[in-house]
Amino acid sequence: MSREAEGSQTRKAELALRQAIVEGEFRAGERLSELTLTERFGVSRTPVRAALARAEAEGLIETLPSGGYVVRAFSEGDLTDAIDLRGLLEGFAARRAAERGPSRGELAEAKLLLAGIDKLLLKPEMSAEDFDTYVDLNARFHRALWDLAQSPTIFREVERVAALPFASPSGFVRLQAHLPEARAVVMLAQDHHLSVIEAIEAREGARAEALMREHARLARRNLQAALADRDRLDELPGGPLIRHAVNL
Amino acid sequence: MSREAEGSQTRKAELALRQAIVEGEFRAGERLSELTLTERFGVSRTPVRAALARAEAEGLIETLPSGGYVVRAFSEGDLTDAIDLRGLLEGFAARRAAERGPSRGELAEAKLLLAGIDKLLLKPEMSAEDFDTYVDLNARFHRALWDLAQSPTIFREVERVAALPFASPSGFVRLQAHLPEARAVVMLAQDHHLSVIEAIEAREGARAEALMREHARLARRNLQAALADRDRLDELPGGPLIRHAVNL
DNA sequence: TTACGTAATTCTGTATACAACAAACCGATC
DNA sequence: GATCGGTTTGTTGTATACAGAATTACGTAA
Q1: Is the pLDDT at B3 greater than 50, yes or no?
Q2: Does the nearest atom of strand C lie within 7 Å of B14's Cβ?
């Protein structure tokens, strides 16, 4: 089976498991029985095991000393650490990109995406679809940035860290959509985006690194706001996971 | 089965696969057939699959689009990136530790390990066993340092990055043992160790971070020396992997 | 009522059988 | 001699049977 094959049972189990965990259908600390998941996902134990192994590698679940898996509990500290880690790695990628000095062509994609965001921000009011577009452009910009370091190793690690739903660059953007200060945060973020590309072009590695670290702090700020307003957490990917963890 | 159980077939397969890859018994890019590994390791396909999935998560092998795994090829850039990444994460851990301000008791273990290294360095000549002791103390010191950040998330990631044989804190130390400048490098490394603990105690986060980044550069220096002297590479963990990759 | 020991049940670890798919090989035809 | 097609072989994906271990539940005794 190819891991990428759409019709693959393993793929099916992986997606279903990931979604179930992220949407909070299990409580933190709950044991995940292979047989139960087998019935739930409609596949046999083999693909379920593969999905569990992958989820463990991604850090969503952890092994029990006696065997088997439990849903991981995320403390508030775990969340801020994951976000900071993402900022650290993105900062590293940005610095490497600046030190390397990408060609104008390599920077084109990132700039195009930023122009798209700029266009959104010109509107006096942002609709829900506008926010969806922003989330998409933002995610693509971050990936383009990771790519600018031209290092498969760095790309791989930053991708892994950002795979945790709440550590992703767009993890808390949706929450902002409901808040009055949403527009201001997005504009701040966009200024970071523009500045880091400017820094990379000017080969200012230290500045690029510092900017991406600070950029991740926006996510931490949003996290604080989210924790103060628990009702909205459920709307977010990974939200229930967080609340359950905090309740522990 | 518990992943930690010593007698476990899965554990057996994981260790055997890892060793086989690291010692260069497969060529980079070579396809790893499950059935072949089954015969080789004396276990059934199920544990072999688990071992392959784990090796992929560790970054030693990668999946083929059509299914199956191949041994990953490591370019020289991959190696330096992995080492730098380790330095980045260790620097982050050190900074976090400094900002947090560990108690004297928490620092005790790290200091004890450093005292052990100091004692070794007092000797006029270091034997092979002395180097083994150094490698052990060094590895334990680094783990103790990771722990000082008091963040499971950070510990987890730095452990993962350091799992690649050539990115490990002690990856190239053994190579030094044969070189005349070995003692000088070890003394430099030990000075980094002592300084970073001093910085953490003084809550000098930026200094602690910079020191650990620079500390990792020692490994890069050793890598350069190793690449210039291919014959010695085979003695190292992961050495053959590198040579094969460089030969690509 | 609580604690302890035993039995039953559930779970994971492991091996293996079967099917679908891909690749390699061989032969035939142009 | 080269190319195309079919066959054969090997590989992975998937399901499942069986055994051992762990956890849970229950009953008994203090």
Answers
A1: no
A2: no
Closest CB to A88 among B63, B92, B152: B92
* Tens digits of residue pLDDT in B214-226: 999 999 988 888 7
The verdict on a CB contact (< 8 Å) between B153 and A66 is: no
B1 touches strand C (CB under 7 A): yes
pLDDT band at A231 (very low <50, low <70, confident <90, very high): low
Is the C-beta of residue A67 closer than 7 Å to nucleic acid chain C? yes
CA of A40 to C1' of D14 (A): 17
Please name the residues in contact with A142: beta carbons below 8 A apart, sequence gap of 6 or more: A90, A162, A169
Which residue segments constitute the domains of chain A, with CATH numbers given? 9-71 (1.10.10.10), 77-247 (1.20.120.530)
Count of A-B CB contacts under 8 Å:
68
Buried b / exposed e over B163-188, threshold 16 CB at 10 Å, is: bbbbbbbbbbbbbbbeeeebbebbee
B245 Cβ contact list (under 8 Å, min separation 6) = B28, B73, B74, B75, B76, B78
- Alpha-carbon distance of B170 to B173, in angstroms, equals 5
* Closest-CA residue to B49 (of B66, B65, B32, B64): B32
**CA-wise closest residue to A133 among A148, A147, A119:** A119
Please tell me the total number of residues recorded for chain B in this structure. 248
For the whole model, what pTM was predicted?
0.89
Helix or strand holding residue A32 (H, E): strand A31-32
- Chain D: nucleotides below 7 Å from protein CB are 10-17, 21-23
